[in-house]
Amino acid sequence: MGEEGRKLRYAIIGAGMAGILAAIKLKQRGEQFTVFEKATKIGGTWRENRYPGLTCDVPAHAYTYSFEPYPEWRSYYATGAEIQTYFEMVAEKYGIMPAIRFGCEVSGLVYDDSRATWTLTLASDEKVEADVVIVASGVLHHPRLPEIEGLDSFAGPAFHTARWDDSAPIEGANVGLIGCGSTGVQIVTAINKVVNKLVHFQRSPQWIMPVPQFDYTDEDRAGFRKDPALMDAIRYSDDYIGAIIRFTDAITDIDGPKMAEIEEICRQNLETSVRDPELREKLRPDYRAACKRLIYSWGYYEEVQHPAVHVETGRIARVEPQGVRMEDGTFHPLDTLVLATGFQADRFIRPATVSGQGGATLDEAWKVRPSAHYAMTIPGFPNFFMLNGPTGPVGNFSLIDIAERQWDYIDQLIEELRAGRARAVVPTAEAFADYEQRRIDAARKTIFASGCSSWYLDDEGVPASWPWSYDAFAEAMAKPVMSEFEFAS
Question: CB of 13 within 8 A of CB of 347?
């Protein structure tokens, strides 16, 4: 067997939520690690996105690390800027900043079978060796731009929401907004009262789940500081945990009572909130609720009825220098064009190239679809672990919680390396094939596959998600099935 008490070198790719988590956990163990971050500051998606109205749709006290509650949240749902501040505070408090190398994009990784080590190549061509790679690169960070004729011809500012242009005319301007996912809904809610006109282009409208939003008072925050149990009461409340259980049970039992409850809530929200019958029908989706990611909003239906907002559900023919031309000939003159068109959800660590055992590449492994054994490990790629990797849980719940559970699972595998009982760990091809077939079979029966287009679906129309209940995920993460892995000495 290997050397007892082996000292490992860890490379963490990404300094967003998951990378910070991994760094804290490794530092607490006294491990040797480096975080490679392509940007100049931490934060991941909360660094990249700065658009007006940016808000997390998980209650703030549930969107924190379990070991670091935060009494200073201003509202029940926190803004992106507040969340960025939280992560910066946590990184400083736990002393991981000195271990982060900023401006260091990882462009390639190669595994050496004989030495059981990874060589990372940075964009600067520097080479770095590591025994263990933790991929915390995130899911939604490569913007997806729409393929619309003439987009490059637009005379004014035209930009993706993850590349927000602070100099673009918004106040008093004619603004076009393409896309109606969470980002589009939040932007409409934020800017509708300051624009001259806002044209909200919707390829397909969304079901809206109504949620409460309210500010915390100074007295509330003082109470949270004095008694952290008050924050736990929110984090583990029936309102939040109950909604998670209802959601995960519903998506896996699409004709059951919990899905019927979700659909009725969304339907009644539309019927009772939108006064104009013509607008109401424009905003009515033609697919089942939760087929696309549910939109949580406390104000969209009210704000979209503002006189300055025009909902456009027709097909765009092309973008022209002064605006957008519809297929029916309608022309919308615009000063600014905002693209809330989502992200390439199949990229993960790519465009970095990854070469594993025998020179096999990640692109080859993911030729059909990105996937990983229980969303974390991949056959042929030893000592290579992903947090919030492909086929992990998606939905309206905290990815911090998902990452913490995944880390507990990964840490048990790494313990075999730390203890010297193995030099490398990798899932067996057989175990992965069994997991993936079971996952695909179950995913095809979820609400995500019920007849809409969404970023959840891969090229073959299979939802790229965990298709079982949240409780099943928690149970799977509690302890790896060691027989599903090869441990090389």
Answer: no
